[in-house]
Structure formats: C-alpha cells, structure tokens
Design a protein that fits this description.
heterodimer, A: alpha+beta, four-stranded antiparallel β-sheet, 10 helices, about 70% helix, B: alpha/beta, seven-stranded mixed β-sheet, 11 strands, about 30% helix, globular
Chain lengths: ~280, ~230
Amino acid sequence: MRLTVREALLSFRRAPVLSALAVTTIGFALFVFGLFGLVAVNLRSTLGEIEERVEIVMYLTRGTPVEVVTVAIGDIQAFPEVELVDYVTEDQALERARRELVEFQGVYEDLTANPLPASLEIRLREGHRDSRSARAVAERLSGFRFVEDVRYGRDWVEKLDRLRDIAGVVGLVIGAGFAAAALMIIATTIRMTVLARSREIHIMRLVGATDGFIRRPFLLDGALKGAMGGMLAVALCYGAYVLVSRGLFRASFFTAEQTLLFLLLGTVLGFAASALSVNRHLPRV
Amino acid sequence: MIRLNKVFKAFPKGSMALKDVSLHVAKGEFVFLTGHSGAGKSTVLRLIYADDLPTSGTVRVSGFSTASLKRRDIPRLRRRLGIVFQDFRLLEDRTAEENVAFALEVTGTRRSVIGPKVMRVLTQVGLATKANAYPHELSGGEQQRVAIARALVNDPLVLLADEPTGNLDERATRGVYQLLKDINATGTAVLLATHDLDLVRQASCRTVELQEGAVVYDSKDDQPAAREPA
C-alpha cells in the first residue's frame, strides 16, 4: 500500500508539468460543468420561488351565499393537491384593488357599486405547483355551480415547466460532453505515464509483481488527479459565484453535499479514465 | 527443477528459433548455455521465465508447466527465479539499495523484513558500502552486482543470467563470474547464457551449446550430440 501511494505521488514529481496540465485541464472541464451546475442550482431556486406563487383563483357568481361558499371551501380543502383556500369577499377585493392599483385609485373612489367579484384563492401543495396539477384542479373547480371563472396563469406555468425541462436536458448533454473530454484527457496523461514508466513496469514484471499491483499506482494517480481537478473546479466555481454575487445579483452556491459530490465526480472520473487507459496500454508495455 | 521437453519455438515470420530442445537443469546445478548470437540462448531463458510460450513442447519450472500456465501464475513463477541481463536494467533514479528493495516491495514483503534482507544481499555481492550510490555513480561491474543482488533478494531457486558479462571488462567479468559461483555454492542453481568462450573454458561446469536453435552439445553426455548440417 505504501508503495502504491508513493509511486502515485512520485508521478507528480517525475512529470510535474504534465501532471499540472492534467489537473488544470480536468479542473477547467469540470469548472464549465460546475458553472452549468450553478446556473441550474440558481434556476431551480428561482423557479421554486416563482412556483411558490402559483395559485388558482376561482371567481364566484355574484350573490353566492356565504354558507354555500363555506361548504365549498371545505370540499376544496380536501383535494389532495390543495394546501390552503383563502376566501376574498367582494369588499375585500375592492379594498385590495384600491390599495394595490394606485393608478386607478380615482376610479375606485367614485364607484357607487362594487364591480369586483368575490373569489377563492387556492394555494397548491409543494410538488403540485406545476401546470398539470394546476390544470387538473382548475378543471375540477369549474364543476362548482357558482363558479364564474377559474384562472391559474396557465401560460407561464407551462412555460416554467418547459424551461426547467430544457435546462435539465441541456445540463445532461453539456455535462456528458465535458465528462467525456475530462475522461480523454486523464486517459492520455495516464497513457503517457505508463509509457514513461515502461522500463519500471518491465522490471516489476520480471521480479514477480502481479498485474493488480502494477496497476494500482496508476489508478490512484488518476483518482488523485481527478480529485485535484475537482477541487480546482470548485474553487473556480466559488470565484465565479463571488463575482456574480457581488456584481450582478444574489446567487446561491452549491450545498456542502453538492460540493462533495462534485469532488467525488472528479475522483471517479479520474479513476475510470486511468482504469481504461491502464487496461489498454499496460499489456503492450 | 527446470525441464524443457521437445520444445519448438517459431518466430512470428515462421522460421524456427528453437528446434526440438530438451534440457534438464537440476537443483543447485551450474550450467553454461553457449552459442553464437541468434543461436537461441535468450529464447530458452525467456521461455523459462514465461516471457513467451513454446510453439510446441513443454517447459516445466519448479512445479509450473507451460501446458497449464495461467496468466496469474506468472508472477508466482518469477518469484522463484532471479533474472540478470547484460544491460543490468536498473532504475536510474534509485540508489543501489532502493533498486534491490524494489524487488521485495513489489512482491508485498513487509517493510521490517526488507531493510535487513537488502543489506544482507548487498553485502553478499560486495556492495554494502555503496548502498546509497545511484547506478550512474557505479562501474559496470558494480551495476551488474546490484542487478545480481536484486535477483537474489527473493531467495530464488535458480538464477537466470543472460550475457551478464557482455558489457564488462575482463576484470569485472571475472569478478561477476566468481560471484555467481559463490552464489551457486550456497545452493542456488545458475543458468548462465553467454557467448564468451574464454569464460566457459576456464570453468569446469556443465556446458550446453546451442546452434541455430538446436542443442548440439551437452557436456553432461560428454560426447557431441548429432550436429545439424550448417
């Protein structure tokens, strides 16, 4: 084990430029991947905030008795998707309009009769704040006899959904592309190390080292380079995050688990790449 | 301990490197394998340390047989052998001591065992005082001694030496030969491939001569075998 670790570390000392180049390239490949990850993380938290506001408004026919509305609230509250039902009376609606629509204050002042209908504002539970659930609930609500209209901002809810889907697909594609690039870079550096150490490998074989033993330092070397590349990428991502947070808008960074996952990704990439390379080139040395 | 039985080995192009070679090396024996370059000496050694397999016939080495040899057996087979080459094959960036220790490290020997064992073989080859020297700081003869120490450190049953004195002057050659004789005296068999006939004549050891891939003489039989037409 000691020898494995020593040999793996020695490869950095024997070929410092090549090693640094490998770590840097992996670092930058993962950095671009990480940047996308940051965009995804922030997009998701933004989408989450917007989704918080996804609600259904059900306008009631003028003169619907309060008792009927109360029963209906009970029924709607029992829907599995529904978190909260808020009853806004005609007077409250007018009050709110006067408060919020300052530009039209004069119009509302002069009114003798209230033109605004009463409504039920329905908030959906987390996990149901998407266009499909909203549409399903809206359809069920339309079944009530005293319903004038049901609105849930269908267009933008659906657009949000689509945006998130696209973000997911693009993330996967870019991620896979960069993972492949990083894989190839590590595989190449390991191949060069294998060739550079062919004399040593030959001697190891002559004195009876097993293939597994010969392979181990290379695998550790690859994993180490991957982990270091991962660290570099996290550092670069953090730099980018600080820059954006200071200059543009309040962004969020990876959680501790996500950061760890990122380092693990680098390590696994490095390990897999060197395994591929060693399996391919060792028998030829 | 080493037994080649009716071994044929074809070159990739089709010509024969070895033709019907049968050879037995007993425990503790010292055998010269002689012949011109290209006679097949190195091929015999390579078949013994399983760097290559015979085209037909079998090679048996210390309980392993090429007839049933698996890839994972090769390291175990080689740990019973010590191999020395003309070009020493030392790691230039390591000291004499580290070169010898390397052979133990890669076979998973415990650290506490390595140090004393390395010093013991370095003393045996007369290089205890140069343990910390790098190969480029040593003479050819000394480098070959380091290589022999590395071959010895795993306590091999046989030492295979492929032209070990080929790069050495006469004095160093005599020294290395004497060292190999001393090693043989402790019970390790030695199979020494060389085309240095002076060395062979001086020694009174069993000599096997190869010519164009066939055994043409074995002093054990004390009479020339049927020579193939040249």
